[in-house]
Amino acid sequence: MSDPGSDPGALLTSAYRRFVVVVSGPSGAGKSSFVKVLLDQGPEFQYSVSATTRARRSHETDGRDYFFLTREEFTRRADAGEFVEWAHVHGEMYGTLRSQTDEALRQGKNVLLDVDVQGGKSVRKAYPDGVFIFVLPPTLEALETRLRGRGTDSEERIRLRLENARREIPMAREYDYAVVNDDLAAASHKVVSIVWAETCRSSRRLAG
Questions:
Q1: Sequential DSSP letters for 23-83
Q2: How many domains does the chain fold into?
Q3: Which end of the chain is more exposed for a tag (fewer CB within 10 A), N or C?
Q4: Which of the residues in the chain have pLDDT under 70?
Q5: Helices and strands (DSSP H and E) totals, the chain
Q6: Which domain holds residue 78?
Q7: pLDDT, tens only, 171-195
Q8: Residue 43 forms part of a structural domain
Q9: 26 occurs within a structural domain
Q10: The CATH number of the domain where 76 resides is what?
Q11: Maximum CA pair distance of the chain?
Q12: Is residue 188 part of a domain?
């Protein structure tokens, strides 16, 4: 039997191996906008629904917006190693279930994750062949303007988000790509180009 890695026909006929796409960056940098742009690329892209212990809001649906778990259930599943990554955020627990990510990959989806830098580290350990993109604001001043413009945060919350941004931005060096969101349309084009280029990586098409 010939080795598929040495067969010229394998490259021409094989579909590429699907992968995880991690989008990280400080709050207000535009991560969710890029996730939405990628989801618009077609049915082979799927957003990873997170699990959380926070209460479900009236407009939210379990399994679509989040998997809503009790704190006891979340802790049990975290202790059992069922999360790719998880963290405490503002007094609640959030995490990415490994079963959900693995199932989406088996179904031929590229899985999109919007996680913080600590979550990104955990995801890279679990999926080292993933694509890791860090979204940067053009300046800290521009980031502050965006945060204030949303009108959803208190002054204390805005200061906390800016302090977190100063700690997170240097972590961009640990990502495969860093995209400055100075113009949403231009930055979106870069993100889409990165991901589509990754589908053409020979190692994904010659997977055994």
A1: EE--TTS-HHHHHHHHHTT-TTEEEPPPEE-SPPPTT--BTTTBEE--HHHHHHHHHTT-E
A2: 1
A3: N
A4: 1-14, 90, 206-208
A5: 9, 9
A6: 17-200
A7: 999 999 999 999 999 999 999 999 9
A8: yes
A9: yes
A10: 3.40.50.300
A11: 66
A12: yes
